[in-house]
Amino acid sequence: MASGLTYTAVDSTKLATAEYYGKAMVELGAEHPEIVALTADLGKSTKIGMFGEQYPDRFFNVGIAEQGMMSMAAGFAKAGCIPFCSTFSVFAALRGADQVHADICYQNIPVKIIATHGGTSFGQAGSTHHAIVDFAVERSFPNMTLICPADGMETVNAVRAAYENPGPFYIRINRGFDRVVYKSSDYGFELGKALEMRPGTDITVIACGSCVFQAMAASDFLKNTDGLSVRVLNMHTIKPLDVEAVQKAIADTRRIITVEDHNVIGGLGSAVAEVIADTGKGCAFKRLGWQDSFSTIGLHEDLMTLAEIDSNGIVANVRAVMQKDFELDDDWKDEV
Amino acid sequence: MALTKQEWAALETKANEMRGLCLDTTHWAGSGHIGGGMSCLDILTILYYRHMNLSDDPNWPDRDRLILSKGHAGIAWAPILCDKGWNDPEQLKTFNLTGSMMGMHLDSNKVAGVDASTGSLGHGLSIAVGTALAARVLGKDYWTYCILGDGECDEGEVWEGAMSAANFGVTNLITFVDRNMCMIDGPTEEVMKLEPLADKWAAFGFHVIEVDGQNIDELDDAIEFAKKGNGTGKPVAVIAKTKKGAGIKAIEGDYLWHYGAMDENAYNAGKESLAEYYQARLARAQKEGK
Questions:
Q1: Which of A75, A179, A285, B19 is most exposed by smallest CB count within 10 Å?
Q2: Do A102 and B119 make contact, defined as CB atoms within 8 angstroms?
């Protein structure tokens, strides 16, 4: 990966996920004078303000105006700057959607959107501030790359990847602290490549964001209690999806569960379902997430329990899917 | 008054040529946004043929930029982008046709010289503010020009852009409002009142200049004033009072000609009308030019 600090476990105990993003931005800003940062009155909440404190001449707070922010970023990018925009996910994906669609994705220009307070992580704020449709929106925009990092370390890698790769990026991170998945940022992150967090042959759990930690915990638990071999994939890049990793999971385990803090329509689960359908193979399958319902008010961890995307929910659903039949077909060579 | 008789007349001749190509393109395409194209064509002409710092390379990093926020006026812009030598003028003959590089809303990835793809109304001023601020960040001294439709000013994002321009002191930007008083469903003051429009722009922190948008000399004065550093410290908004379909008598000022098709007769009558219009405008240049 890029030069700069390698983050350590010490950081992970004291930094919220967004602070990793802020720190990574400050580092990138030192090396690359063409980077500018924009926010819509959420400089402090999103931590992009850390860039602003360091480089006030390259920081633009547009006030509560997400549409204008996205269009302005397009102007910056077209003129040769690399703008990073940050606001809450629900506003980045919905209030600024027309601008991201027309000004950024259509022109295929390097605007990097860091969408914070993703999923239901701003629990107590309720559904107006929960982003459970953003994957569906961003994934359907041509030219958009969509990443949902598992934790702070992965956020650092995602931010660097966004700078190093062309075109528009949407990186969705949570509010506050995430459970630690990676103790260092140096673990072989590669854009568009799923990471196998746990090996397994009985079933594959494909997760993103804060659900990765939960899936790993569920895998460990099921190994001990049920003797199940549960593969866990960290699908940090939702678009372009690691199709090969999904095909391999179908072939190897014939059972798949997806886990995301998002509506089950249009997000990671849908992306994986498309791959399964394309293979034409029988595969027991379940999408965990918000079941086409709005979320509710509460602590994020409680909301994850409610949506069955915490470790207990994953355990219960793995057990259920292990009972499901799938069409047997031993001839895999021609199709996977 | 800044233009000499000669300069003014030369610009009239160029504007006439571009009006002719705008009408031709509408005819070739079968239909087009000729009303709002013609109304802003004089603004485009004075920018591209007098004020903008450009080169043979349409991607020259130091060039002045134009953001056509009313993207549907692409039919008036495309002839200029061809005339500059950046695009093959033969493409005008396939405008809007399947497979063409050019169509209603010009694509910055397909048409050289288009500084931003536009079409979804209300975005352009914010794009222009970002473009202008990028000059500040990158240490460049290019100018950014933005042309808004008047009906487009109903969009909330226009005013987000306006607040940003004033807030960040974006004085390397000139914003034009093509005030042709019409939108698709009717006169602007009947569909959604815009007046007092100049007061609105002033209240948002702009220095406002109102001109006859079909008077090249008045447009020139406003641009000169804005570019000289006018001492106000404010970004300049030029409200250009124009006529929809300017130069073609049969459609002039008629909101129904936001978009339309022209048969052979209407096209020929339009050509005649443009010729008369040109003579009248030349006469004004001779009479009022320096």
A1: A179
A2: yes
CATH 3.20.20.150, applies to A195-322: no
Of B80, B71, B110, B90, give the one whose Cα is nearest residue B20.
B80
* Contact residues, chain A, for B127 at CB < 8 Å: 71-72, 74-75, 78, 103
**Topology of the domain covering B5-288:** Rossmann fold (3.40.50)
A54-65: pLDDT as tens digits: 999 999 999 999
Domain-wise residue ranges, chain A: 9-172, 195-322
Q: A264 CB contacts (<8 Å, ≥6 apart)?
A: A270, A287, A288, A289, A290, A291, A292
Of residues A8 and A142, the one with the higher pLDDT is A142
Task: List, for residues B125-140, the tens digit of each pLDDT value.
Answer: 999 999 999 999 999 9
Cβ proximity of A232 and A214 under 8 Å: no
A75: nearest CB among B122, B130, B160: B130
| Interatomic CA distance for residues B141 and B132, integer angstroms | 9
DSSP bridge partners of A205? A232, A257
DSSP code, position A127: G
Q: Can you tell me whether residue A216 is helix, strand or coil?
A: helix
In angstroms, what separates the C-alpha of A134 from chain B's closest C-alpha?
A: 21
**Where along chain B do its domains lie?**
5-288
Q: Is A222 exposed, middle or buried (0-12, 13-18, 19+ CB in 10 A)?
A: buried
Gap from A84 CA to chain B (nearest CA, Å): 13
Q: Is B127 in Cβ contact with A71 (below 8 Å)?
A: yes
Q: How many CB atoms are closer than 10 A to CB B115?
A: 23
The DSSP annotation for B149-199 comes to: ESGGGGSHHHHHHHHHHHHTT--SEEEEEEE-SEETTEEHHHHS---SHHH
Mean pLDDT score, A171-195 = 95
**pTM of the full structure:** 0.95
